[in-house]
Amino acid sequence: MGEVLKRRPIIAGRERGPGPGRYALPPTIGHIGHDYTKPCSPAYTFHSRMSSTMVSVDSSPGPQYHIDAKLTRFGRDGTPSYSMLGRKKRSADLFQTPGPGAYSPEKAPPLNLHHRPPSYSMGTRTRYRATDTVPAPNAYTLPSLMGAQAPNKPASPCYTLSARRKTGSASEDLAMTPGPGKYNSTDPSVYLNRQPSFSMQSRTSIPNDATRKPGPGTHSSEKVVAHLPRPPSFSMGIRHSEFVTPLVVDVLE
Question: Quick one: pLDDT at residue 52?
Fold first, then answer.
């Protein structure tokens, strides 16, 4: 025996109408199947690339002619044009006219009673002659002004430092006298008014009470409603099915 399929009853709440995507309206883009109630713009297509055989068959040139703008049907039009030629080579047969830079008027002698300013030049250093016995300025040596070597200058007193002596000097203590560091200083509180003194005490120990005290975070003051008015409270219920028939209770008057 074949398997019997159990058909469930049709629930009207489950049957829903088609959505907007189920309707197929004619498009308004393109040319094929365009909506005839809407205006359609002209459509264009791109032709495919021609083969290489077309170039060999049709060998006419394209728009590659360059016609000068000055050429008209009456001839060439426009202003005359000029160009710069290269410099010609000099030849020995032709006379070369000197330019302005070839003249030196400053080297010409004075003519026609022209006044000329004096000119000077720098000569070399002259050598000493053997007959000159006069010493040069750097041959003199002036006496030093430091110390007592200047004969015509007042000199301040001079002192020298000698080495330290061990025998008979101030550092040799024959009497073995004690120095200032040998004496003990007296406490000022012995002969003066003594100021109050303070000391630092050690840290006190923790109390011996071992019971645990609750902190501020363990108290919930918002839950205490015994002596305060309590606001209404709400809760979230479960989701009910849309196919459950609501309970209608007849109310007898």
Answer: 65
pLDDT at 125 over 60: yes
CA 216/CA 183 separation, integer angstroms: 65
Neighbours of 34 (CB within 10 A): 16
- 147 neighbors 155 (Cβ within 8 angstroms): yes
Is residue 243 within 8 A of residue 13, CB to CB? The reply is yes
192-223 pLDDT, tens digit per residue, is 888 888 888 888 777 677 778 888 888 888 78
Q: Which helix (H) or strand (E) holds 189?
A: helix 188-191
Cα–Cα separations (whole angstroms), residue 210 to 167, 206, 217: 80, 10, 20
Q: What is the pLDDT of residue 184?
A: 84
Strand intervals (E) in the chain: 71-72, 75-76
Q: What pTM does this model have?
A: 0.16
| Separation of alpha carbons 122 and 124, rounded Å | 7
- Per-residue pLDDT at 12: 65
The answer to whether 40 and 32 are in contact (CB under 8 A) is no
What span, in angstroms and rounded, lies between the C-alpha atoms of 90 and 137?
A: 63
Give, as one character, the DSSP assignment of residue 112.
T
The amino acid at residue 231 is: P
Q: Are 167 and 173 spatial neighbours (Cβ–Cβ below 8 Å)?
A: no
Dist. CA 207–CA 131, nearest whole Å: 118
**Which of these, 51, 26, 54, lies nearest to 40 by C-alpha position?**
26
Strand ranges in 1-157 using DSSP code E only, listed in sequence order: 71-72, 75-76
What is the average per-residue pLDDT within 246-251? 70
